Structure formats: C-alpha cells, structure tokens
C-alpha cells in the first residue's frame, strides 16, 4: 500500500478510546482542566537490575508541531464515530502541554516516573498511546543491549537485527537504542545516515554460493574491498572456509588489510578454537574471529565459559525483538487532576494487586549519590514541591513496602532525573548526538554499584518514596476505602457481592 495521504500526520497514531474520552471532556466542557500524567513500568525487564531510558528524541519529533492534518480531519468526519463540533475543535488543536523526561541513556528503575506530562487533560490523553509505544520499545531494546554489553566486556559488538525486527521502524529505532545501550556499530545503513552511528558488516553466504567456491568468492571480494572479513562456514569451516580465507589473505597481503573471519553456525566453541589455531599458525595472530547465530547474553556467557576464541559478536534476532521479553509493560497514569473548583487534587488507581496501585501526586525522581565515592545510594521519589538537597540532618530513605528497611544518607548529592523537554507545547530540549548519549549512558551506569549491574540475579536497587509522598498515598487509599464503604452501606444490595 502506498501512502495515499500526502499530509498524513501522527496525530491519529493513538487508540480510538483516547479520542472517545477527549470527545467527552470537550462536550462536557472540561477539556481544559489541568492534569498530570506519569509513565512508569512495574517490573524490571529481563529481571535486570536497571533499564536504560531511550526514545526521547522520537518523542520530541512526534510532539514538535503535532496537529491533525486535513486528511486526518476528513477521515474522522467520514468515520461517523465522532461529534462534528469535536472534530471542528481538533482542526485547530495544537499540543500545549509540558513534558518532563530523563536524559536518554539514563539508567531508570521500576515504579518511578520516566515521563511526566502536565497540561490539559485533553492533550495529555491523546499522546498516551504514542508515548508508550515509543518509550516502551526503545527502552526495552537499549536495556537488552546493555545486558549484552555487560557480558561481552570490551570486545566488539555489532547490531545485525534489521532483517528480523518487527518491521522497518523497529529496525531503525531499535538500532539506535542498541547503540545507546552499548553496541559499537550497526549493519543498518540508513540508521548510520540518520543517526550518525558507525556502520559495519561482513558478507553473506550468498556471495560464496554465487562463486560456488570459498576461494573464488573471497578472491573476488578481496579484489573489490579493503578491511575484509570472510564468512567461512558456507561449506565447511575448518576444511574449506578458513584455508581459503588464509590463502586469499596471503595472496593479497597489505592490499586488503585482512581483518578476520566470521562463523555463523556449528559449535562455536569448538570451531573458534580450531580457527584461532589455523589463523595463528598462518601468521595472522591479529585477525579477529567474528561470531553470529542467534546469540544473546546467555549463549555469549556460555561460549566465554567454554573459552571460545571469539573477538567480535554480531547480534540480531534476540536483541532487536527482545526475544525473551518482548514488551516492557510501561503504563501512563493520571496522578493529579483539577477539580471543579479549579484546585489540583491528587488521584490514585486502586487495585486488588498491590503492585498495580499507582502513586498519586506530581513527582520528581532524585538520584542520591554519595559524595565519598560518587556511587548511587538509590532513587528518592518526592512530591514536586519537595527539595531533598542539602538537608543538614541527612536524607531519610525507606523501602515503600517494607518501611523497616531504612537508612539516613549523609554527605550526598541529590540529582533530579526529570527535566523539562517540552514547555507549553514548545520543544525546549535539543537531543545530544547519539554518540554522546551512549557515552553518558555508560558513565551513568557505572555510577551504580556492580551488584545492580550484573546480568544474573542483580540486587534490587532502592527506589524509595519520600515520607510526604508515602503519607499522601496512604491517605488517598484510606479516602477511597471510606468512599467505597459508604457506597456499600448506602446501597444494601451491594453487600451481597
Ligand atoms: N559451544 C556452544 N555453546 C553454547 N551454544 C552454542 C555453542 N555453539 C553454538 N551455540 C548456539 O547454539 C545455537 C545453535 O543453533 P542452531 O542449531 O540453529 O545452529 P546451527 O545449526 O549450527 O546453524 P544454522 O543457524 O545454520 O541452523 C545458536 O544459538 C548458537 O549461537
Ligand atoms: O542470528 P542473528 O542473531 O539473528 O543475527 C543475524 C543473522 O542474520 C544472518 O543470517 P541469515 O539471514 O543469512 O540467516 P541464517 O540464520 O541462515 O544464517 C547472519 O548470518 C546472522 O546469522
Ligand atoms: O554484516 C554482516 O555480517 C551481517 C549483517 C546482517 C545480518 N547478519 C550479518
């Protein structure tokens, strides 16, 4: 399908129920009521100790100049689903809200706000779906990438996932997220162009099959390239591929700057050791062994344990699809809303399961680090009118579910994590170059103790509520309980249920 709408916009990239609610607010005349919504996720992805926040650049692209185009409006009218006066209003609508977010690449944790939208309830509602769409995916992939980087150490790490991604957008933005999470380069050339990230690659089996021989294929490739890596497993790695690679490397010498070989099947521990011997014996001790084939942090760990002689890891499917956990599960909840007297009142969503109870009130996340070693002590979620900096008596931190787990931190720095990125509809933040984001992420991650960074059974990082935020939550839970009780006593029929 070609795009038949030259002015297609992203304004309709939302769930119909958002427009349905917006219509209600509009027709009831409350669409300009102020509200604060926050995005957070409840569980750490991959049971990891941290997540890497990503997606902000695309969020800003999306919000910048967001409006309903002529064909969007025409479509809504033709659908017959919405009131004409509501559609008239959408015609001149512009996003006027304020958005706060962490820096891209920032380590973030479950149950803390990672996006905050403040503005008309109408505006905030429309953008819920795309914000979750963007940040859930990119944060997931950046986190998966960071996990893989953890097990790979300082070795080369290449992103090969485009062919296996859930369509083109996912390949492109997933690649960017993977780079932020610590990959060195991508095979996706467009990502290289758009984001100015390094591109890299070898060649496929089809080259060898086209020439019907390893030697002929490598020779042709060598005639036409420098810095070559030969794929050696098309027919037989140890008996055909590697001998042919060595022969061509010797024949072409300095002309091709032979970089190494790639193995894409078979027992990679066994094969890589054999290949290493052959390359060393042939006088190519610096040639690198690349490996690919459904790799992820688990297989890499296992291969390292087996002392596989692999120098560069190419990772596709399991990274770009977040194979073992394909969704982050981030949610977007209203935490404060203007009442009919014009006052902001905090609001809570109660649930039978404790983890689904939201934390009311507009908040800020503070990262608390010790001034002695620069290492982080935990995150402190406070209401936005609190300032936990420079408290002479120290900062009292307690676990929100187990308050007896507590500590007082002295000689600390409290750094706010959420920053204004859009103010009253205007984008006020310019994303740094992706290379800088990657570097920032690396540094911010290493301000966490290694116990939170290990890939298996990491320590739970403290994400605490301020006393005021905690009291506010408890008071609202009590209010809701009293309200439900009153309803039940007013209506005896309800007692039956
Ligand atoms: N020594 C090893 N230890 C642990 N895992 C390995 C080892 N060697 C290879 N693997 C992994 O085992 C899996 C093997 O998958 P699979 O059987 O599909 O590969 P293959 O048959 O060798 O190649 P192909 O992809 O062409 O079918 C891959 O994920 C690979 O990365
Ligand atoms: O294995 P991944 O982590 O997804 O990495 C990308 C894969 O893409 C290529 O395979 P290709 O499409 O040629 O298929 P193959 O599995 O038959 O090698 C490459 O040889 C890798 O195996
Ligand atoms: O360049 C490569 O080796 C490559 C690129 C994409 C997928 N698999 C391998």
TrEMBL record:
Residues 12-136 form the Nicotinate phosphoribosyltransferase N-terminal domain. Keywords: Glycosyltransferase, Ligase, Phosphoprotein, Pyridine nucleotide biosynthesis, Transferase. The keyword Phosphoprotein applies. It comes from the Bacteria. Its EC number is 6.3.4.21. Signal peptide: none annotated. Residues 362-472 form the Nicotinate phosphoribosyltransferase C-terminal domain. It catalyses: 5-phospho-alpha-D-ribose 1-diphosphate + nicotinate + ATP + H2O = nicotinate beta-D-ribonucleotide + ADP + phosphate + diphosphate. GO terms for biological process: NAD+ biosynthetic process via the salvage pathway. Pfam families: NAPRTase, NAPRTase_C, NAPRTase_N. Transiently phosphorylated on a His residue during the reaction cycle. Phosphorylation strongly increases the affinity for substrates and increases the rate of nicotinate D-ribonucleotide production. Dephosphorylation regenerates the low-affinity form of the enzyme, leading to product release. GO terms for molecular function: nicotinamide phosphoribosyltransferase activity; nicotinate phosphoribosyltransferase activity. Pathway: Cofactor biosynthesis; NAD(+) biosynthesis; nicotinate D-ribonucleotide from nicotinate: step 1/1. One of its GO terms (cellular component) is cytosol. Residues 158-337 form the Nicotinate/nicotinamide phosphoribosyltransferase domain. It is an enzyme of class 6 (ligase). InterPro entries: Aldolase_TIM (IPR013785), N/Namide_PRibTrfase (IPR041525), NAPRTase_C (IPR041619), NAPRTase_N (IPR040727), Nic_PRibTrfase-Fam (IPR007229), Nic_PRibTrfase_pncB (IPR006405), Nicotinate_pribotase-like_C (IPR036068). Catalyzes the first step in the biosynthesis of NAD from nicotinic acid, the ATP-dependent synthesis of beta-nicotinate D-ribonucleotide from nicotinate and 5-phospho-D-ribose 1-phosphate. Belongs to the NAPRTase family. This is Nicotinate phosphoribosyltransferase. It comes from Weissella viridescens (Lactobacillus viridescens).
